[in-house]
């Protein structure tokens, strides 16, 4: 009987110890890989960006997002803020125009969703041939002023696809936003390292009770590459 009790006790210890050990190793590896990366040299401010904001019924907050993006520290003639009003039934398109954005209105009852909207916008951008790189920003996000400069620096250094550090703007607002901030901090280490340095750009989302799928990271890629990855149908891979 004592041998059985000892066996059960050892099994329980292993059940607890093994996951804890792997968790500690995971954190140790991330710590070792999180050393500061030397920032790239500042590039010439001549890259033309199309900054895409996919939006579906975002009338309540789209003006704030557009206003934030129009204040990016980059020559005004070298970027465009392009709101993709996808299957909207509210005033998203009109509000975005009044805020200063270029607006692409798209209505398709069959091919619905963010992936199809971005594929449509990328196709238009590539056909026009004006933009050398594209950036994707969520409609409920705020970007740091150095966003395009940081991306341009890395494009000049040879990068073709980048992702900015991504966080939750209102992390203390609720238990859900706290969990999201923790999750992004635990799993989003690679984008931060790829961008590197104290000058890395950030994109923070003011998260609401919408489904998690509404909250994706800010990304940039150099034309003609495609740089989105998602498991839903119709999203570029």
Brief summary of the model shown:
The chain is of the alpha/beta class and 237 residues long. It has helices spanning 2-33, 62-70, 92-99, 114-128, 147-156, 175-187, 189-195; strands spanning 49-55, 79-86, 102-106, 133-136, 141-143, 161-163, 165-168, 202-205, 219-222.
Question: Which properties best describe this structure?
Answer:
about 240 residues; alpha/beta; Spore Coat Polysaccharide Biosynthesis Protein SpsA, Chain A; six-stranded mixed sheet; about 20% strand; disordered C terminus
Overview of the molecule:
This protein has helices at residues 2-33, 62-70, 92-99, 114-128, 147-156, 175-187, 189-195; strands spanning 49-55, 79-86, 102-106, 133-136, 141-143, 161-163, 165-168, 202-205, 219-222. It starts with a helix and ends in a 15-residue tail after the last strand. The protein has 237 residues and is α/β, with parallel strands linked by helices. The chain contains 7 helices and 9 strands; from the N terminus they run H-E-H-E-H-E-H-E-E-H-E-E-H-H-E-E. The longest helix is centred in the N-terminal third of the chain and has 32 residues, at 2-33.
């Amino acid at each position: 009987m004592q041998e059985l009790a000892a066996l059960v006790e050892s099994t329980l210890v292993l059940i607890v110890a093994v996951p804890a050990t792997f968790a500690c190793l995971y954190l140790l590896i991330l710590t070792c890989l999180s050393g500061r990366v030397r920032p790239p040299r500042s590039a010439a401010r001549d890259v033309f960006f199309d900054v895409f904001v996919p939006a579906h019924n975002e009338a309540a907050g789209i003006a704030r997002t557009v206003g934030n993006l129009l204040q990016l520290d980059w020559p005004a003639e070298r970027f465009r803020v392009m709101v993709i009003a996808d299957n909207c039934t509210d005033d998203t398109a009109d509000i975005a125009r009044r805020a200063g954005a270029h607006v692409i209105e798209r209505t398709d009852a069959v091919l619905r969703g963010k992936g199809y909207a971005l594929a449509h916008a990328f196709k238009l951008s590539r056909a026009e041939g004006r933009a050398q790189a594209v950036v994707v920003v969520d409609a409920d996000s705020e970007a740091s002023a150095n966003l395009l400069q940081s991306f341009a620096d890395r494009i000049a250094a040879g990068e073709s696809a980048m992702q900015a550090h991504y966080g939750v703007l209102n992390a203390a607002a609720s238990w859900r936003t706290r969990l999201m901030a923790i999750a992004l901090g635990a799993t989003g280490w690679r984008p931060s390292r790829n961008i590197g340095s104290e000058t890395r750009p950030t994109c923070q989302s003011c998260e609401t009770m919408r489904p998690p799928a509404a909250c994706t990271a800010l990304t940039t890629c150099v034309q003609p590459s495609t740089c989105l990855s998602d498991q839903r149908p119709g999203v570029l891979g």
